[in-house]
Design a protein that fits this description.
The structure is a homodimer. Chain A is mainly alpha-helical. Chain A has helices spanning 3-10, 14-22, 41-55, 61-72, 78-89, 99-115, 124-138, 145-164, 172-206, and strands at 30-31, 37-38. Chain A has 9 helices and 2 strands. Chains A, B: It comes from Actinomadura soli.
């Protein structure tokens, strides 16, 4: 297809598509003449992925570049690709150098060890969790494994489901797609459902008060 | 205590504290002379709440103003306060006027009805969920109640726990505190644990591939 059709089918302007090509997010089409290139279904699928990461995941172009570079490098294992994605997504919480933060980060590391989870030392989610611990303690909410247990169980159930959703023998490109979607989009599905469920639970408990 | 001690204990500058007073986020201290005011533990608690909402929830001052106004108005029921908080927090997804979005929003409404959840029609989380549905479909991931079931169960379990955590007879101010913390901070706890659990599940499944 020509770039105009690619634009129609992706819902993106020709200008945006050319920008993504320049930034290395989208491979060039195959030149059929000096002024025309042909695009195919893989271009369309890539554009849809970029749109989703941009619109829903709210990721900057630089983060998408890192993810795409890892997707295109077959030597990167699926698990490493997953870790790269998480790293690109952030958020990169700036860890302050104070004793409260250090204590919280040590608690996170102890929790991960206690759960027996295989998670890289530099996973941004460790800092994200430590950051919430600091704020919760400042507000007078102590953190114990018992308080965290419902969250741990929910997170584990959902993650098992997500990884299990990738059928054995699925081609690498599709698997990558599925992992990205789990990380970026289904994370927001969980957040949205959590808020809806909270409102429902609040209504049943406090609706009359 | 004087404002300098309030500053030390809250970790906020005197300038920031004065800004919060001007913006109506923090009540004035009681004047003990023309140039000195006294502050107490409630000021400190309020400042910690504001800090948490700002730093971890990343809420703008205007959203915090809405929340504080509802907290201070005893006529607002706890459930309404909770809905106000959710509204202030957003995110306010701009709903495009296209058929895909309308279909997704109808699916969300049908899902909420099917689950029997008591959620306001204008809850921002409905739009947030619809937005993810549109993106998932665009990427070729169909949405069925079966796919959503693990997320629904996780969200419900966590929300039940959160609302149940508020002991009967807890004073209103403390209850509000607890609800806000659940919404803003524990949501991030869940997100962070979800990512850690995903990395662990990915390692077990793809670690060698």
């Amino acid at each position: 297809m020509q770039i105009s059709e690619l634009s129609d089918r992706s819902g993106l302007t020709v200008q945006t598509i050319k920008f993504y090509i320049r930034e290395g997010l989208l491979p060039k089409g195959s030149a059929v003449s000096a002024t025309r290139s042909e695009y195919d279904g893989r271009h369309l699928e890539r554009l849809r992925l970029i749109s989703a990461l941009r619109e829903v995941g709210d990721l900057p172009v630089s983060a998408i570049q890192q993810i795409i570079a890892a997707i295109e490098d077959d030597r990167v294992s699926l698990h490493d690709l997953f870790a790269t994605t998480q790293h690109a997504i952030g958020p990169h919480v700036a860890a302050p150098h104070d004793p409260h933060w250090r204590a919280a980060r040590e608690d996170v590391d102890a929790l991960v060890r206690e759960l027996g989870w295989d998670v890289g030392d530099r996973a941004p989610a460790r800092d994200l969790l430590a950051h919430t611990f600091v704020a919760l303690r400042r507000l007078g909410f102590p953190i114990t494994l018992r308080d965290l247990r419902p969250y741990v169980n929910a997170a584990r159930d959902v993650a098992e489901h997500e990884i299990g959703r990738v059928a054995a023998g699925t081609p690498r490109a599709r698997t990558v797609h599925s992992l990205l979607v789990s990380t970026v989009l289904y994370e927001q599905v969980l957040t949205a459902l959590h808020r809806l469920a909270q409102e429902d639970a609040s209504s049943r408990r406090f609706g009359k008060s």
